[in-house]
Amino acid sequence: MKKVKLIFAGGGTGGHLFPALAIADKVKEMIEKRTEIEIIFIGTKRGIEYRMKDSLGYPLHIINMRGIARSFTLKNLMVPFIVISAIFKSWSLLNSFKPQIVIGTGGYVSWAILKVASWKNIRTLLQEQNSFPGVTTRQLAPKAKKIYLGFEKAKELLKTNAEIITTGNPVRSEIKLMSREKACNALGLDSNKKTILILGGSQGARAINNAIIKSLQHNELNKNYQLLWQSGKRDYKDVATKVGNKVISSSLFPFAKNMAQVYSAADIVIARAGALTLAEIVHCKLPSILIPFPFAAGDHQKKNALDYVDRKMAIMIEETELDEIDVLAEVISVCESELYNMLRTSIKKETVNKKPAVDVIAMDIIKQLEEMQILQEVA
After folding, report:
1. Model-level pTM?
2. Do 86 and 61 form a contact (C-beta atoms < 8 A)?
3. pLDDT tens-digit profile of 12-70?
4. Of 37, 113, 127, 379, which one's alpha carbon is 20 to 30 angstroms from that of 310?
5. 180-351, which class in CATH?
């Protein structure tokens, strides 16, 4: 049996990197019981993958790659030279490593290695997280063998003959729920109160933070509710100063390392509409109030949010509405209405008896390796 060799390319942001890590971990777990497997990752020095290089669990090969800025900048003049260099480095790496499959999870970092792999007739697979596919996915789709989608609607925007499978988005293996009471105790919360979780990602979401601050400054929080607030590192000090003693110190933090604990304590979530955040929220069966980032590429966050609204799993508030409403009052109103139970019921229906996306994708990759006779089929 041949040694399995795979390349994963996706990064820049956690939204592209974490799906790659989830899939790689699952494939490795399933294959290493049967044969040797070697996995490497491709990234740039500017992406989150480089900052996490010591904890990735896989060798990271740097290929300098840059996308074209949407507004004119002199740096755009360097892009053709950077792309040519990335193509040569990708060619050299593919010749030396000799992977059987290259998997791309988005971000401009994945473009060169997958493009060259397709030129060399190496099988390429894509995993697209958003309902509006990114530029890289759209450009690579025509030569891909298979494409795994987080949202069914993305299929309409891809020009390809590849087989397309809607799997949902992979969720990190560490997102495993514990009892609500245990999570609340660990976080210093009252398990008898309903918990409103506020998420803004590792960098926070200033518009959401400001909206919550405004709510707390104008009205006392309902005594039956409590906040669990990830403010982001950038805004943490400002938020802590402005909310004072209205939020207990243990429930306000810049970034949570143990997201399983945080989700386990929550009853409803206020968040942006990034694809992975949505996948984690539904994985944890939580209703949500989504406030899409209005400047996301292709307005993909709004499209993601609308998909969840259409499926009755979330409610959407546009950022432009935040000045006119009391966000916390709106959330509490939802929690105390039949709408809350409807959202929970819809989420349960969507997730019951559904295989996790990461399992579906990993099993499909293994099936392809068997068809390619890299892996021996299990009787």
Report:
1. 0.91
2. no
3. 888 899 999 999 999 999 999 899 999 999 999 988 999 999 999 999 999 987 766 55
4. 127
5. alpha beta
